[in-house]
Each structure stands twice: as structure tokens, then as C-alpha cells.
Design a protein that fits this description.
With about 160 residues, this protein is an alpha+beta fold. It has one domain: 3-Layer(aba) Sandwich (Glutaredoxin), CATH 3.40.30. It is about 30% helix and about 30% strand. It contains five helices and ten strands; from the N terminus they run ββββααβαβαββββα. It is globular and about 40 Å long. Keywords: Antioxidant, Disulfide bond, Oxidoreductase, Peroxidase, Redox-active center. This is thioredoxin-dependent peroxiredoxin. It is an enzyme of class 1 (oxidoreductase).
């Protein structure tokens, strides 16, 4: 597993998308290079098969054809194991690739790993984030602290506008 971090600065729109090569559901791996010349949506979600993450992944799957028509690929990323990703995919008939970043390297490079708080306690975890990469490999748009409802549709509109 490799992830190249462009710098230690928080990822910003207009920056080059950090490279990655990570294992995916169904075997094999997914690399930024696989999407050269295409637009790419990377949605980072906290945990497979939890309510919000399930709704988000189902929404991106439901709109996959429309993303494809807009020349855009979609990939979901969490720190879950490949086995957990496969169970999640199978249980909910997800058709977008699900990538496993157990070492958090890609999550950190894309600014989706950070301090969270729940019930008065703070901890490190995945911050629900979506990044739209343009066909030239530059970060076109970043959504941080995503609210699931309507999000996939908003990302689709942004992809169509590129």
C-alpha cells in the first residue's frame, strides 16, 4: 500500500490530488493513475454498514450511471478491512469500488482523518469528506463534514459543471 502526500499542508482546491494505490473490495487495488483523464469523486466515510455511511454509499451507487454520463468515476474510502468492505458491498448491492485505507495514509493526505468528538470525548477518526478531482488530476472541490442527505446529488451537479 502506498500513498504519496503532496505536502503536509491541508489539501486545498486547485492542488494536485495526492496519489494513492490501495486494496479494494473484490481484490486488486485502486490507484489515482487508474483515473487519468477522468473526473473522480472520492467519498471518505467513517465506517461500513453504519446508517449514514450506508445511505451515502447507496446514494452514490444509485447515481453511478449519471456520474458515468458526466465522465466521472466514484470511489468510496474508509479504514475498514477489505473483507468488511466486501460484506458492505454485498449486503447493499453497492456498485462503486470501496477502498480500504487501514493505515490512514490516504485519509490523512486528503484531510479526512482528524480529531472528532462524541459524548464529550475526543478521538481520532474519519471526518466524512468528499473530494472531486478534475480530469487533469487537480482537486476541483472539497466538501468537509458532509451531511449525507442530498450530498451525492450536489456532488453530481459539481461534476457536471466541470
Amino acid at each position: 500500500m502506498t500513498v504519496t502526500k503532496s505536502s503536509d499542508v491541508t489539501l486545498a482546491e486547485g492542488a494536485s490530488a495526492p496519489g494513492f494505490d490501495l486494496p479494494r473490495d473484490g481484490g486488486g487495488s485502486v490507484s489515482l493513475k487508474d483515473f487519468a483523464g477522468k473526473k473522480l469523486v472520492l467519498f471518505f466515510y467513517p465506517r461500513a454498514d453504519t446508517p449514514g455511511c450506508t445511505r451515502e454509499a447507496i446514494d452514490f451507487t444509485r447515481l453511478k450511471g449519471e456520474f458515468t454520463a458526466a465522465g466521472t468515476e466514484v470511489v468510496g474510502i474508509s479504514a475498514d478491512t477489505v473483507k468488511a468492505q466486501e460484506s458492505f458491498r454485498n449486503k447493499h448491492q453497492l456498485s462503486v469500488p470501496l477502498v480500504s485505507d487501514g493505515a490512514h495514509q490516504m485519509l490523512e493526505a486528503y484531510g479526512a482523518w482528524g480529531e472528532k468528538s462524541m459524548y464529550g470525548r475526543t478521538f481520532m477518526g474519519i471526518i466524512r469528506t468528499t473530494v472531486l478531482v478534475d480530469s487533469g488530476g487537480k482537486v476541483a472541490r472539497i466538501w468537509r463534514h458532509v451531511k449525507v442527505d442530498g450530498h451525492a446529488e450536489a456532488v453530481l451537479e459539481a461534476a457536471r459543471a466541470l
